[in-house]
Amino acid sequence: MIGQIQWVIVVTLAIRLAASTDKRPHFTTEPPPRVLWPATRGAHAVCRATGHPPPDIHWVTAEGQVITTIPGLRHVLSDGRLVVGARRSMVDAGGGGNSAILRCRASNKAGVALSRPVLLQPVDDNILANSVKQLTPAKLGGSVVLRCDISPQIGFTEIKWMQDGLPLTTGYMGTDTRWISGAGGLLLGSDLTQADIEADYSCIAIDTPSAVLKLTTDESSWLESLEVNSIEARMGDTVILPCVLRHINRHTITWQRQDTSGVWVTASGEGVVRSGALVIPNIRSQHAVRYACSPGSEATPRLIVRLVVYEPLTVTVTPNPLMLGTGGSGTFNCSVSGGRGGGVTISWQHEGRPLHSPQAKLTLGPVRSHHAGLYQCTAYDHSDSAVSGAELIIADRPPRLVTTFSEAITRVGQSIAFRCAATGIPPPRIVWTLDDRPLPSAPEKYTVNTRAESIPGSEEGSIISTLNINIRTADEGGRYGCNATNSGGSQGHHARLNVFGPPNIRYLPPIHVKVEADVTINCPYSGYPVKEVLWRREDGSIVESPLDSGEERGILRLTSVRSAAAGGYTCEVKAESGELARRTVRIEVHKPPKIAPFQFPEELEVGGSTQATCSLISGDKPIQFTWHKDNLPIPSVLKVEQKNMDFFTILVIQDLSSIHSGEYSCRASNDFGTVSHSASLIVKEAPLWVWRAQNTSVSAGAAVLLPCSAKGQPLPRISWEFSTEGENWRHILWGQSESADVNEGSILSDGTVWLRAATPEHEGWYRCTARVQHSFLHHMFYLDVREPPKLSRGGGVGETQWVVRGTPARLTCTVRGEPEIHVHWTHDSRPLALHGSGGVEMRDMGNGAMLSEITITHAGPEHAGDYRCLARNLYGTDELVFRLFVKERPSVPEEVRISEVWSRKARVTWRVIRGAIVSHYSLQYRSLARDLTNAPLNAPLPALDTWDSLEVLNVTLSNSDLLHVASEGPSRAGALVSGLYPDTRYVLRIAAHNDVGASPFTTPLHFTTREEAPGGLPRDISLRALRARELLVTWQPPPRETWHGTLLGYTIRWWEAAEEGKGSTDNGSESGASSDATSSTLRGLKPATRYGVTVRAYNAAGNGPTSQPHYRHTLESRKYILA
């Protein structure tokens, strides 16, 4: 029994150890959730996976159908890459061109895994177009903000910045980092040098470079209204929140954030303010609030930017792993988080096969062995996808006997019961045996009762089986056993039932074993008491079988038997009474087959013949011979002849071809074993073309796949050469890296040339060579790259041009490309109509270039706007945008108003006209005559004879001095007028200037500053004692210029003062006087008492300063004098 338990444990451990060497596929590089597929541009995706053994990688549809290569249109490579040619070519070839959901599948013998779904999305070519916009003017030593504008259909993508054609190194707040790139395609440059300002800038998105941009430094001509109102970012991104306000000083920018209650608080700890922009690294969901920048700490928020943070779509499957026993039930739960808020679709897969369960909960059960494996939950929304998996492990636990029975002694006529109890997952089945053979079917002797019981707190249950035996004869004695078995293994227990009676031995059938096998036989005897049990050979000699501790008598043990050990073995049982019982068993020793190795000749060629002989060395007959090729039966199409004899078999192959190459195995079998031997058959074959490209014509910029594949033995090696004229060939040394430059080509692992964007430099002759040792094939074809129109600006000008009203304007575009180019112009998206004010001229410049030029003789406001030069031919289109601004004297500032007035300053605001070119503003103001100060509000305003007097103050306001007043509506600018006097009436006017001239001044605005508490002290204060209880206080008003408004009166305060300079004013008394009063009598005082007195003036804005105390004694009372 112990030996059998150990054997089960060893086998279980061996199986688990062997299984541990196999590792499920794991994706090291997973394809993106979406791949754009333009009409003339190709698409590609990369998938990598590891595992043991190394997994096979295939691309499959959403339904699980494997995608195969279509030469020149779609190539599925063994390295996991999927390369799709131009969508237009696929449509023209009838191979489709619609959107599709694809997945990468990695499989080995350990399991199958699917990548997240990939949406192959058809888009127009213009979706890939991008451009660089300048959001703020560039300043030497200052900063600039650029934005790479891409199509919203692209979504989140990596953007690379270029400066003068070289990659621009960007980072976050490094010691030497002057450039920071952030989400939304923003780029912040600080501490700009002259070289930075003079450089060209471009961005690259989806392998597509933008046109270059020259920085603009002239703030007076800054007309862009590219306010950044919202920025979308992914978790972990760096975010740049630019303060795109006109006419502000970047060094005074403050930032606030809106908390959950809607209150604006200082954005401290959110990041770093750099050059006016708020830079937040490693963005998190708590940063997704509204931010506001303002040009000073006193101003309210001016520009509000909403930050939207998206968490990537993630999927989690729990529990992992899920461990169930056979027949058990369980549930997988799929949790989905993140995404962009759209509807999420959930699906389940088991080992790569779809399951029809769109719910987040997947219930399994009752499970069987084939249910084990990887379960994946896939989540997909309109822009993202994610997948996660968990493994179901069939955790069967082998049986464990928890209750057994012991050896017993009984007599005929009695009854006895044996009980066994076992646990395990799944619940085991208990079978009873007698002398290692199934219990005889005899209801009058044997009855078995089995029941199940649960064990509290455990997944296992207990199976209890009871064997009731009615002893009718001594032959009911013997070696009884209970064997518990389930899918995880088995465990047995044996013990003897001794019944008083004479010895007897049950029948033993012949035993057939293989050479070198071990043999163990228990003698099936009954009777009691027994003196000895022996085994004898045919010659009568005793077989010595040493017994281990606890083993029963009567065991015959033979190890590594050979043919000489075959024969009869007799068991002898001798009772104490001298009675003797014998029984003989026959042991037959057999030999499994053994065959001689064979091999095929090495030099085999197409059309030849060969044979192989598989000969038997030893083995019991009859022998069955079979042949296999690559572990499968040899197909009849190969016309291979097999001749089988008693001791050998011959394989004959005539008219050899490449399809005969492979691994051939001879298998010899008899009833006692199978043996095989394999040999490789290689038929050398000259290379033959499988597919090859033909003469091809493509448009410049289109993706091209030039296939070249050959078969042969050994596998042909593919090489490529190129020549512009069909002579002087040079080898193509492109690599296979998917990160190669978009303008270069690469050679795929299947030998295909992949041009991601064909250029005129790729035009020419291509020669593909397939080589096998000394044999080779050549194939030549011509690639004709037809150029669509390519436009450029003439005269070295940029996108934006400025002209003064009444002067000529010229817009020039140069076009190159294949002949029959049609060029036309539009103005503000409408056909160009100059109405006699100019014309369009087309000239041939030679070298395949043509020039189209608009000339406007006298530019006026009606000529300003966007002009587009559009060119097309049979191979594509191109367009170029010009922005023409016509400078003229600025118009009078509109909607001018005094928006807020304080005592010493006022804020004047006006509407900024879009398109107005203003370099600075002139603001003039002066106070009106003093004698008007107290005039009624409806008094007529005097007219100013001149604004050239010394009393007029002139202020020049540059654009950086202006305020952006968002609280008054869009496009409002303003300025603070300070240094004013309180409660004073002023008149103000404003004019705009640029390099052409100045606008007229606005109609004068009148306003009066607010009052302020008086700033002067009452003058000439004196005290005079009138009576014993009265003091007369007299004074003169403060200086008129310190009133700061209209005086409303005076406050007189007095208190007792014991000594000069001492005394408390806390308990003093106060009285008032009108504004026109200059004296006041204090009554109710104490006689002969010293008093301190102060006087102060007040107006509607508050109290003025208090005068210095003045002291005086009251007169003595008359009664004191008489005394």
UniProtKB/TrEMBL annotation:
CDD domains: FN3, Ig. Residues 892-1012, 1017-1117 form the Fibronectin type-III domain. One of its GO terms (biological process) is dendrite self-avoidance. The keyword Transmembrane applies. Keywords: Cell adhesion, Disulfide bond, Immunoglobulin domain, Membrane, Repeat, Signal, Transmembrane, Transmembrane helix. Residues 1-20 form the signal peptide. One of its GO terms (cellular component) is plasma membrane. Residues 1068-1081 have a biased composition (Low complexity). It is found in: Membrane. InterPro entries: FN3_dom, FN3_sf, Ig-like_dom, Ig-like_dom_sf, Ig-like_fold, Ig_I-set, Ig_sub, Ig_sub2. Residues 1061-1085 are annotated as: Disordered. It is a single-pass membrane protein. Residues 25-115, 117-205, 209-293, 312-388, 399-498, 503-586, 593-682, 687-770, 789-899 form the Ig-like domain. Pfam families: fn3, I-set, Ig_3. GO terms for molecular function: cell-cell adhesion mediator activity. It comes from the Eukaryota. This is Down syndrome cell adhesion molecule-like protein Dscam2. It comes from Leptosia nina.
